[in-house]
């Protein structure tokens, strides 16, 4: 019996919806489009996020959106993940690996060194992912911005992070 394309698409959406609901029950905090090719992981919460605010809800969210737009990403082509749970505890490597696998992005970007270290451990990277470095692992690109939010208050640091972000150009469609 042949499976229709629409039925397969609905099944994939439902599978992802159930996975995301299960992650949310465990305290995982994801923002943006779960079907996007680009996942930003944040390892260090700012004061608002530590008090229960949404990840990327501070000054880093609009700055990230503007940067991605300049690089050719549509507004809906990114998602964000906090590497801490809703109760403030750190996400363990196994759960982080499950979340990344479920979201299945083409590119994962660590916004800070804490996220880079946790992603490296979770994904089995056998090296330290330095700021500005991009590697390919498990079929995806993995990059470290090395302090995106911290750089927003310093013009020189912002230029450095911008140059690192340009390492992650939008990928073309699979045509």
Shape label: globular
Q: Give the CATH class.
A: Alpha Beta
CATH topology category name: Uracil-DNA Glycosylase, subunit E
Largest sheet: 6 strands, mixed
Radius of gyration: 16 Å
Q: How would you describe this structure to a colleague?
A:
By secondary structure, the protein is of the alpha/beta class. The chain has one domain: Uracil-DNA glycosylase-like domain (Uracil-DNA Glycosylase, subunit E). It contains seven helices and six strands; from the N terminus they run H-E-E-H-H-E-H-E-H-E-E-H-H. A six-stranded mixed β-sheet has the order 1-3-2-4-6-5. Helix 4 crosses helix 5 (113-123). The model has no long low-confidence stretch (mean pLDDT 88).
Structure characteristics:
alpha/beta; 6-stranded mixed sheet; 42% helix; Uracil-DNA Glycosylase, subunit E; 175 residues; 6 strands; 7 helices
The gist of it:
By secondary structure, this protein is α/β, with parallel strands linked by helices. It has helices spanning 5-25, 47-50, 60-70, 93-103, 113-123, 148-151, 155-165, and strands spanning 30-32, 38-42, 79-82, 107-110, 134-137, 140-144.
SSE diagram, text form:
Blueprint: H1 5-25, E1 30-32, E2 38-42, H2 47-50, H3 60-70, E3 79-82, H4 93-103, E4 107-110, H5 113-123, E5 134-137, E6 140-144, H6 148-151, H7 155-165
Parallel strand pairs: 2-3, 2-4, 4-6
Antiparallel strand pairs: 1-3, 5-6
